[in-house]
């Protein structure tokens, strides 16, 4: 005796039959796919209730294909997004990425770039979870560009900053510097974000030092001081100045002292520690330490 089918499986089979059925004299293919799409959606939600997330993703994908055939771009985008979330819940990252990409495609086609940016950010985070850092960088930058053109500057800056952090992590220091300076420039326009500029400029300078380029670090620091007369007096600028001097004089002890003094008041985060270790290694230590 065959095992009894679940309610979700029954709905899914019904949807498949409806989508494959021939069109009668008094019905259109559009109405057929609309009805099939509704059934696939019901099946997908039933699979979610059963915690069968891969099957739910498959059903939402089938729904999306039906919506496409009905030229319902908005509904297709929403169905692909539901599929992506289901695949993500099932830890099927490749299928989730494919569904997210389809979501973005339909959102951009309909000019919904703010929503497309949200989903592109989801893609970046999924790449990050699967340790595909370069792909995550690219996705964060694309999301940032779309946020920026929609005048969502705060969201754009968050994406550009995340991209910069990842660029630095994988050694693309010049790209990181470009992104940090972009975020700093965009932050200067608002009193609410001006306080963050010194952090972005510090990170930019640390990337130059990690890239064995104290000349660029010093030149950029002078330019930052010209852009903002208060920068030179900040703890961030003083740390950067001390590090540049230590690197140029080959003084690892002075480098460690500058880091230690800064850390006593403002705790160094993991990103800074990693970049500082790389910068200190340029002095010539095989196993650099910040202590």
Structure description:
By secondary structure, the protein is mainly α. Among the domains are: 1-20 and 28-91; 196-291, no CATH class. It is 76% helix and 0% strand. It has 14 helices and no strands. The chain has helices at 7-20, 29-49, 53-69, 73-89, 93-109, 113-129, 133-149, 153-169, 173-187, 197-210, 214-227, 235-249, 252-265, 270-281. The longest helix is centred in the N-terminal third of the chain and has 21 residues, at 29-49. It is elongated, with a radius of gyration of 26 Å. The chain starts with 6 loop residues before the first helix and ends in a 10-residue tail after the last helix.
Q: Top keywords for this entry?
A:
elongated, 76% helix, single chain, mainly alpha, 291 residues
Structure summary:
One of its GO terms (molecular function) is syntaxin binding. The protein is built from 14 helices and no strands.
Task: Note poorly predicted spans.
Answer: none
Share in helix: over 70%
Shape verdict: elongated
Taking the sheet with the most strands, its summary is:
none
What is the alpha-carbon Rg in Å? 26 Å
Query: What's the number of helices?
Result: 14
Secondary-structure element order, N to C: HHHHHHHHHHHHHH
Please give the number of β-strands.
0
Category from helices, strands and their pairing: mainly alpha
Q: What percent of residues are in strands?
A: under 5%
Mean pLDDT: 92
Distance between the termini: 71 Å
Describe how the helices and strands are arranged:
Blueprint: H1 7-20, H2 29-49, H3 53-69, H4 73-89, H5 93-109, H6 113-129, H7 133-149, H8 153-169, H9 173-187, H10 197-210, H11 214-227, H12 235-249, H13 252-265, H14 270-281
Helix pairs in contact: 1-2, 2-3, 3-4, 4-5, 5-6, 6-7, 7-8, 8-9, 9-10, 10-11, 10-12, 10-14, 11-12, 12-13
């Amino acid at each position: 005796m065959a095992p009894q089918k679940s309610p979700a499986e029954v709905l899914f089979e019904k949807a498949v039959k409806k989508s494959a059925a021939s069109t009668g004299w008094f019905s259109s293919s559009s109405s057929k796919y609309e009805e099939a799409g509704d059934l696939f959606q019901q099946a997908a939600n039933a699979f979610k209730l059963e915690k069968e997330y891969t099957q739910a993703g498959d059903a939402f994908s089938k729904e999306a294909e039906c919506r496409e055939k009905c030229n319902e771009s908005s509904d297709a985008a929403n169905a692909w997004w539901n599929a992506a979330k289901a695949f993500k819940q099932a830890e099927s990252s490749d299928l989730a990425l494919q569904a997210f990409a389809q979501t973005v495609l339909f959102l951009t086609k309909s000019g919904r770039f703010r929503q497309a940016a949200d989903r592109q950010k989801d893609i970046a985070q999924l790449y990050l979870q699967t340790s595909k850092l370069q792909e995550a960088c690219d996705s964060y930058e694309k999301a940032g560009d779309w946020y920026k053109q929609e005048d969502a500057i705060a969201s754009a800056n968050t994406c550009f900053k995340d991209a910069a952090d990842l660029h630095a992590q994988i050694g693309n220091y010049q790209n990181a510097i470009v992104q940090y300076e972009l975020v700093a420039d965009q932050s200067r326009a608002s009193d609410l974000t001006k306080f963050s500029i010194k952090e972005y400029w510090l990170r930019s300078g640390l990337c130059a030092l990690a890239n064995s380029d104290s000349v660029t670090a010093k030149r950029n620091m002078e330019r930052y001081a010209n852009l903002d007369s208060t920068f030179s007096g900040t703890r961030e600028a003083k740390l950067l100045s001390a590090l540049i001097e230590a690197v140029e004089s080959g003084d690892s002890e002075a480098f460690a002292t500058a880091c230690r003094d800064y850390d006593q008041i403002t705790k160094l985060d993991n990103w800074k520690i990693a970049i500082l270790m790389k910068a200190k290694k340029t002095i010539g230590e095989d196993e650099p330490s910040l202590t």
